[in-house]
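Work Package 3 (structural annotation) set out to generate three-dimensional models for the target panel prioritized at the project kickoff. During this period the team completed the workflow that converts sequence records into discrete structure tokens, so that structures can be stored uniformly alongside our sequence database. As a representative example, we reproduce one entry of 332 residues exactly as it appears in the project archive.
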Amino acid sequence: MADDKERGEEHYLDAVEALEGNDRDGAISSANKACECDPQNAEAWWLVSRLELPEKTAPSLKQVARSLRACRKVIEIEPEHDQAWRQGARLQEEIGLYEDALEWWNQRRIIDPSDTEAVIEQTALLVDLGYYDEAMDLLQVIFENDLDLIPSQMSRLARLHQLVQKATQQGRLTHFRPWDKRDPGWEAIRMRSNKGPVSETYLFLLMVVPFLVLEVWLSQGLNKAGWMGFCFSSCTILLTVILGIRFTKSLFHKVNRPAFNMIRAMDTETTSGSKVIAPELRLGRLYMSILGRRPKAYQERLISIIESGDDLPKGWKPTLPDFEMALPEEEE
């Protein structure tokens, strides 16, 4: 047993040396040998997880699966390995395993109930799935327990809170639930199935820039009136830009509602492992445009689900973890 551990350490050191010499193939080979000799070597498994992901290209589904497997081994051996928790969650989201990612972060919170990052990531996932009430409940966990926040988390938390608050005010009936074939969101998708998503920049150029051009042309006469004319024209242009950005942002979400619905339908397929999108919708420009923008591993997983031919079971809904298990203990 001791000999295996020593050989494992030697292979691990060989892997590190090969990596320093830019020999990734040799490093992967040695790291895998280290894991075979000593399955309890967390650092060797972590090295495997990192090396399985290419540096300059998007990973394939097989590469993501191998990296994720190594991440799971790291967590089993060393539950406090923060980097492995983050990478494992990211990999699951990259291939559309949103239910698994929710449970992954829940297990992290059970180990460390004060982990704010886990709560924020779970909230973001619930928003993607359309569970806004549950997302708001999770946000309350942060506020009620005074969990520590770093600056980047504070800004993201503020955006999530604003998004969730707006969604809950709109009402549950406006949220698209792809697993319900009678949801009116499907009709919106069908109406725009042959049109791709519209970018926010395009809407700004179309709706706001003509007014800015007119204002700049008119300001030439005002600038001749002196300093006051220059200030007035500058303020007018600035105000137009600010209002234009707000207007196009709102219009962007309204115009692209079918695209957001399609994204959620795709995510339902990847997280459930079953088909829910009608075959004719897959031939449309909307579907193809969105699919082309998803990660390579996500595309491969989705294609494999389509080829399997399994339809979404009747009555299926996303399975949410038991959030109560991960709540911080109340101080006596």
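The mean pLDDT is 88.
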